Amino acid sequence: MGAQKSIHAGKAKIDVNVDLTHKLCTSLMLLPPIPIRDGGSPLSLVIGSLCIKHPNLFGGSEKLDVSWDKGLYDSTVLVAYRRPRPEWLPQQCFVLQHSVSPEIGVHGTPVDNFSRSGSGGVNLSRLSLGVDLNEPASSNWTSTTSIKFEHVNILSDDGRSITRDMEGFPVTCSGSTHDSMVVLKQESRYAKATNDSFSRFSMQIEQGIPVLSKWLIFNKFKFVATKGLKLGPAFLVASLTGGSIVGDMAPYQAFAVGGLGSVRGYGEGAVGSGRSCLVANSELTLPLTKTLNGALFLDCGSDLGSGRLVPGNPALRQGKPGSGTGFGYGLRYKSPIGHLQIDYAMNSFKQKTVFFGISNLGL
């Protein structure tokens, strides 16, 4: 349940969105993965966002966006400034972002036969500053290049800077409380759709640039390929996700396998976390009514045996299997105010889990 409100102040626009989804989930006895940190105050149960937009900051069509997103356990502040350029040139966007979030995928502790992940006492405070260059679209392809400075500080659950996890292993690459890096990122995306099918592909390549000797030097890539196909009244969607990283690496940079966006039936990162990964997903949906669809799904994923290559080997210490399969069924409800998703999944250890999600729900 949520509420949305737009306020116009001169040429500026303020969008406010408050989402009380977690209260609904709590009433259904779907417990959160980690405890509420501020003593269970009413504010801790609110998921919301605040966005301020100015379409003409200096009179030359410059755009300024300032947004704040608050989750149950995370928070993100984003400032983006765009200035107009000719259409045939890359469009520039200067970005300043700060986020604080729990690192569950790598340092989280699997519980209940790997069906959930609890807090591992490691949180990321990430500050980034840089510029995005959006290339002009060509046919079905789009491309974005960015270069950013990133400063990642590691915090405990009570907000203290830390250098090691609960078992005494380093949580950064540098060995101090933080890592710094300059990252050059190239992302290419392809999309094509017809009445009966669609195809999507994206590739991301990140390169750490050694501006200073102690800054991280690495190369990381990730791809996602998705195909959707209509089969009579049903619709089949299959996707393949993979990636790898070489060079300097902090544990929090590992690929986490498991969770709602990965292998359902497992907690976030409960399958494994490694320098490489490969995840395959398939889902068949069938219409039950005009607004309600049933779904059958099968997910599988692996860290490709690379968990031992992550500094400190957190996956082995937590007993993660390294590979896993999840399957089950669910419901998809669509309405003018939002989408509701309920999945009933079982993992390789025959542990049953219910996933409940609400998106774009507002009043």
What report would you give on this structure?
3% of the residues lie in helices and 56% in strands. By secondary structure, the protein is mainly beta. The strands form three sheets. The protein has a 17-stranded antiparallel sheet. The protein has a two-stranded antiparallel ribbon with strand order 7-8. A two-stranded antiparallel ribbon has the order 15-16. A hairpin with an 8-residue loop joins β3 (47-54) and β4 (63-70). The longest helix is centred in the first third of the chain and has 7 residues, at 21-27. The termini are close together. 22% of the residues are buried. The model is unreliable at 20-39 (pLDDT under 50).
Given as residue ranges, the uncertain stretches (5+ residues, pLDDT < 50) are 20-39
The structure class reads mainly beta
- Specify the overall morphology: globular
Radius of gyration: 21 Å
- Helix fraction, binned, reads under 10%
Number of strand elements: 21
The topology string of helices and strands comes to EEHEEEEEEEEEEEEEEEEHEEE
Biggest pleated-sheet summary: 17 strands, antiparallel
Mean pLDDT across every amino acid position: 86
> Helix count?
2
Distance between the termini: 8 Å
* Percentage of residues in strands: over 45%
Subcellular location: Plastid, Chloroplast outer membrane
InterPro entries: Bac_surfAg_D15, D15-like
GO cellular component, one term: chloroplast outer membrane
Protein name: Bacterial surface antigen (D15) domain-containing protein
